[in-house]
Design goal:
Blueprint (H helix, E strand, L loop, with lengths): L17 H7 L5 H5 L3 E3 L7 H4 L4 E3 L5 H8 L2 H10 L6 H30 L7 E3 L5 E3 L8 H7 L5 H12 L3 H15 L2 E2 L4 E2 L2 H8 L2 H16 L5 H11 L8 H13 L11
Parallel strand pairs: 1-2
Antiparallel strand pairs: 3-4, 5-6
Helix pairs in contact: 5-6, 5-12, 6-8, 6-9, 6-10, 6-11, 8-9, 11-12
The structure holds zinc ion.
The site of zinc ion has 6 residues, from helix 10.
C-alpha cells in the first residue's frame, strides 16, 4: 500500500521482519544511515530507543496493513460492496456496514489480547493440527461460538475467547490458567493515549495485525453474506479502495518530513488525492 505513495526516484527494499531491519542498523556506517529510512511494523511493541529516531518510521497501529484498513477509507467501501445487495436502501446498508466494521474490529482486537497472551508462553500452539502433521493458523470458524457472535454482532470477552481457543487447540489446564492470568494483566494496562484501562479504542491499534483482521472479516462476511469470501479477496478490496491525503497517515507524514530533512523527495504527493 505504502509503495503507491513513494516517489519513483526512491529505491524501496522490502525486508522481512522488524528485528532484521533494526538489527541491520548496527552494520551501516554514518553515510549509509544518512540516506536510508526504515519503515517497520509496530507489532505490539517497539523498544523506546528506536522510537526517538528520525530515520525509523513505525506503523501507527500494529502493522502497516491494519493502518491501511483503519485509516484509508477502503474498508467501508469493501464491506458496503459485499453487504449492499442485502438491503433495499443505501441508508440501511450504510448503518449495517458501520456496525459490522465495529464488530470486526472489536472481535479481532479482543482475539489479539488472547493470542498475545498465548504467544508469551513458550511452545503453546496457536496453530491447529490438521492431517499429515500439518498445522494451519487458527481461524474464527474454529471457535465453537463464532457463528453466534456473528449473528448477534456481540463481542465476547477475552476470557471466553481464551476458553474457546483452549478447546480448539487442546491446551492443558495449567496453560489455560496462565493465559488467563497474562491476558488479564494485558487488559489492565493503562492506555497512555486515553488514560484508561481496557481501552477499547486502542484494542485494535495494539492487538490486531492486518492478517488477523482480514481473516476475521472474511469469515464474518462469509457468514453474513452466505458466499465464501477469502482473506486475500477482502485484503485486496480494502487496498484498492483506500487512499490517503497527506496528513491522514502518520507514516506518510513522517516519511515526507524525513525526506525534506535529508534533501530527498520521498512521498509523491502527485498521487495523493
Ligand atoms: Zn486508548
Amino acid at each position: 500500500m505504502i509503495v503507491r505513495y513513494i516517489d519513483p526516484s526512491v529505491r524501496v527494499v522490502p525486508a522481512h521482519g522488524k528485528d532484521i531491519i533494526l538489527g541491520s542498523l548496527d552494520h551501516l556506517n554514518a553515510r549509509e544511515l544518512a540516506s536510508c529510512t526504515f519503515v517497520v511494523d509496530c507489532d505490539g511493541e517497539v523498544e523506546s530507543k528506536w522510537r526517538t529516531r528520525e530515520d525509523i518510521v513505525i506503523s501507527q497501529h500494529r502493522d502497516l496493513d491494519i493502518d491501511t484498513a483503519v485509516l484509508g477509507g477502503g474498508l467501508r467501501h469493501a464491506v458496503l460492496d459485499y453487504v449492499g445487495p442485502m438491503f433495499e436502501s443505501r441508508r440501511e446498508s450504510e448503518v449495517f456496514t458501520a456496525r459490522l466494521i465495529d464488530f470486526a474490529m472489536g472481535l479481532s482486537g479482543t482475539f489479539g489480547v488472547a493470542a498475545d497472551a498465548a504467544r508469551s508462553i513458550p511452545d503453546l500452539p496457536l496453530r491447529l493440527s490438521v492431517t499429515d502433521g500439518h498445522r494451519r493458523k487458527i481461524e474464527l470458524s474454529d471457535l465453537t461460538s463464532s457463528s453466534r457472535w456473528v449473528s448477534d454482532l456481540s463481542i465476547p470477552s477475552v476470557a471466553t475467547i481464551i476458553d474457546e481457543l483452549a478447546d480448539a487447540l487442546s491446551w492443558n489446564k495449567d496453560n489455560i490458567t496462565k493465559v488467563h492470568q497474562i491476558a488479564a494483566l494485558g487488559e489492565s494496562k493503562m492506555c497512555r493515549m486515553h488514560h484508561k484501562t481496557g481501552c477499547d479504542k486502542c484494542m485494535i491499534r495494539r492487538y490486531s495485525g492486518g492478517h488477523t483482521f482480514h481473516s476475521f472479516l472474511a469469515s464474518i462476511l462469509t457468514l453474513v453474506v452466505g458466499t465464501s469470501i477469502s482473506e486475500q479477496e477482502i485484503a485486496r478490496s480494502i487496498r484498492v479502495g483506500s487512499s490517503f491525503a497527506s496528513e491522514e497517515w502518520d507514516v506518510l507524514k513522517r516519511l515526507h518530513l524525513r525526506g525534506i530533512h535529508i534533501g530527498l523527495k520521498y512521498v509523491d504527493f502527485g498521487t495523493l488525492n
